[in-house]
Design brief:
This protein has 8 helices and 7 strands, in the order αααααβαβααβββββ. It is of the alpha+beta class. The longest helix is centred in the middle third of the chain and has 14 residues.
Length: 218
């Protein structure tokens, strides 16, 4: 179908065209951006739009300028999505039968609580999804040694040891939040997650429920 020359092409249409030109499926693009495939679907259907960080990544991955993506008049939330933190500012004391066993993880809970003081914050148990090659290696090691965990899984666990993951529900918005030893990164999800088990990008998650009895003062 030929479009009227006066009709502006939407961000979703441009994104879909650029993705196909790059030879990527929605799932492949989602993995590169660390978002769900449903988010890509929603963006391409113009039922939501990427935040500034995702727009920057899309520009690089698909070789398309941000100006071109946004010249149809969409409004962009330019709020800071990644901020440096200093865990030494926080004092965390584990309560009996409650709270984190790890002081550092408890401090990261406090970072999120400070940024989202009136939100419902869910802690997530994360596991990096193995690639096909890693799965083959993992199965071979398990077969030969009877070890419960293979080398790839252990290495991934070590590599992500400084990360804590959260789902934050604030009003009608939901954020996927990662806190490391050095920064907090938040991104608004195009589609709310309600399942207890889900995957985003290279990780699978289990929702461990709302974090409660958390000290919010520093």
């Amino acid at each position: 179908m030929v479009k009227n020359s006066e009709t502006k092409i939407t961000l979703g249409e441009k994104l879909k065209s650029a993705r196909k030109s790059a030879g990527l499926t929605q799932a492949q693009l989602a993995e590169k951006l660390l978002v769900s495939r449903q988010a890509i679907t929603k963006w391409e259907a113009d039922k939501g739009m990427p935040d500034i960080e995702n727009l920057k990544q899309l520009s690089k991955l698909l070789n398309i300028s941000i100006d071109h993506l946004l010249d149809s008049g969409e409004n962009l939330d330019l709020s800071v999505m990644r901020e440096e933190i200093n865990l030494d500012r926080y004092t965390y004391t584990r309560k009996l039968f409650k709270g984190r066993w790890s002081e550092k993880a408890g401090k990261k809970d406090m970072v999120v609580a400070e940024k989202y003081p009136n939100a419902k914050i869910h802690g997530l148990l994360a596991k990096q999804i193995l690639t096909k090659a890693e799965k083959i290696m993992d199965n071979a090691i398990g077969f030969l040694t009877d070890a419960p965990f293979g080398i790839p899984e252990v290495l991934n666990s070590i590599k992500n040891a400084d990360k804590e993951f959260y789902l934050v529900n604030q009003s009608d918005k939901q954020f996927f939040v990662i806190v490391t030893d050095e920064f907090i990164e938040s991104r608004q999800l195009a589609e709310k997650i309600t399942d207890k088990k889900f995957s985003i990008g290279k990780f699978s998650f289990v929702d461990c429920g709302i974090i409660s009895d958390m000290e919010k003062s520093v």
